[in-house]
Amino acid sequence: MSRKSCCHTFTALEGVLMVLFVLMTGVTVGFVIVMAISRSSDTTGTVNDSMGYASPDQTAGGIHTRLYSRAFIVANNTERVVFVSADIGMVSQRLRLEVLKKLQTKYGDLYRQENVVLSGTHTHSGPGGYFQYTLFIITSKGYIKPSIDAIVNGIVTSIDIAHGNLKAGRIFLNKGEVENSNLNRSPHSYLNNPEEERRKYKSNTDKELVVLKMVDLDGNGLGMLSWFAVHPVSMNNTNRMVSSDNMGYASYLFEQEKNAGFLPGQGPFVAAFSSSNLGDVSPNIKGPHCINTGESCDNINSSCPIGGSNMCMAMGPGADMFESTKIIGETIFNKAKELYRTAQQEVTGPLNGAHQWVNMTNVTVKLNATHTGKTCKPALGHSFAAGTIDGVGGLNFTQGSVEGDPFWDGIRDALLGSPSNETQDCHHPKPILFSTGEMNVPLPWHPAIVDVQIITIGSLAIVAIPGEFTTMAGRRMREAVKNELESRGSLGQMEVVIAGLCNIYTHYITTYEEYQIQRYEAASNIYGPHSLSAYIQLFSGLARAIAENKVADLPKGPEPPFFNNSQLISLLPFIPEDKTPLNTSFGDVLIQTLQSYKRGDVVEVTFVSGNPRNSADMAEKTFLTVEKYENMTNSWNVVHTDASWETRFHWVKGTAGLSNVTVEWHVPSSAPPGTYRIQHFGYYKERQNFNVIIKPYEGSSGSFEIYN
């Protein structure tokens, strides 16, 4: 992971090619704002198994776009808060603990549990292998230390750069609605919420984009931090490449515009598009259709007459996933640019941070004056295995299942044991497929101890949600936190944003009413039907402590486990020595480019390559360059890297250590005519006597012409 750092079906090309690809994200981005008494600000700019669609077969075989960590620090004379938006599926508990441990070593108590928020954008085409609980280990080829080390280093480096570049400045807030960018993928669940509550809102998704504009004291732009509710699943479950998806493309466009003349991942301006309450929100705005017949499958089970739920998929708005990613990303970017330009509401006031650890398996919830409820030990329902219209599960499970299946329940009982009566009663009406809270071999399958956290920047409160809130769940949380902050103390009117996928991953959180329908999101609500009420109660407590200036009185809560590396299982296959075809060397061209192309064409070249997992030092380098020959200087000038939208990097594993790389350049309409070439860089492994040696190599295509 790097300047900006690095989730259901990828072909298993090589164990976890993404381990490498996490390591290979570009320059770590640090963004900083110092909010002094005069209000100030600054910014500096700073691949293994994929994670998101929950499939062990989801391994990556290339690079679509690089993944980044973007760090924002806001400070005054006495306090500071940190918000990191990372291009990963979600933040794991292990990841957060590792980051905080490194920050403690470097900075002491300056950056700590209560004032550092780590948020994942929720790209489903990012790395796996950075979890310590068994369920996630199973779906991502185990615990992959090179993967988590790369992400930790990327996040910490982004914070380091931000820390070193604090500068006086000002912050402005703006918000507006983004149309044609999201739809509710579980509308039948949403409709189960009370009618009077639904009447308060004009849509079954949140369309509001919240933008923070950061400028220096002269008004020069430094950075932009935003939140919007949409799943980054425009790149669907057939994708084989690392990708930051639609939200990452929005960041790419914003930073490229602000950092004119810089290559992607470089330049001083940092723009983050962070996740929000996206649990039931899809970017595939054409809606669900049967891929075999074309008819709509927008029903409670997301099922087709022929083929069942496996045929029901949502797509769009583009003709393919690349065009869809581009359209959604551009739409969000264009609105963000408008809001950034017109932002006038200045954010002023104190900085605060409140954090607690909570045992979410046994929280007593006050439902009303006479009734209480409680949370449950974690469990996943049958509809969890059905997947969603953005990525189906692949077996004969359907969404909306409120009864178990004797076949699958029998297999579960034989292999894993049956859920206890207590857990079944607690999760009712969920038919339990996996009683993960009662499964502890080889390690616990799900977390019990969960982070809850709020940071405030003046009149803005950021609620760090440990999972995926649905639309209505997020609305209820915002309202509850806002009421607590405004009704107590002297903070005045507050703007509350939901930051999703923060600090630890606990799957989905639905409303109680949505839980009764038991679609995918409800079946994945692991702590039971009162989970949302419990979180509202807990976050309201944090808000109350902030408003009343009693954060110091909050109990720390029970610390989560930190398992030894020796306890964590890696299922990543060994990387053999790299080999080349007869009479070739690493970097040699196997398939050459043509002699000329026009704008809109795709240039392709294939090289003899090593396994990219051997290229562990590519974080601030690139696997490829597109270069233009400059006659004035008689030199080659880099115009694109593997971080560019226009390039794609495909690695294909052969047999007996053989592999090759194909580089694509999708020539943009803006490409100047002239002479170009493509270069590829990598490393290969060889054995000399009893020692394993990693060596660099490079290769170059022949020159070719681009015409008008």
Automatic annotation (TrEMBL):
It catalyses: an N-acylsphing-4-enine + H2O = sphing-4-enine + a fatty acid. Keywords: Hydrolase, Lipid metabolism, Membrane, Sphingolipid metabolism, Transmembrane, Transmembrane helix. Residues 539-706 form the Neutral/alkaline non-lysosomal ceramidase C-terminal domain. This is Neutral ceramidase. Its EC number is 3.5.1.23. InterPro entries: Ceramidase_alk, NCDase_C_sf, NEUT/ALK_ceramidase_C, NEUT/ALK_ceramidase_N. The chain crosses the membrane at residues 12-37. Residues 41-537 form the Neutral/alkaline non-lysosomal ceramidase N-terminal domain. Belongs to the neutral ceramidase family. Coiled coil: none annotated.
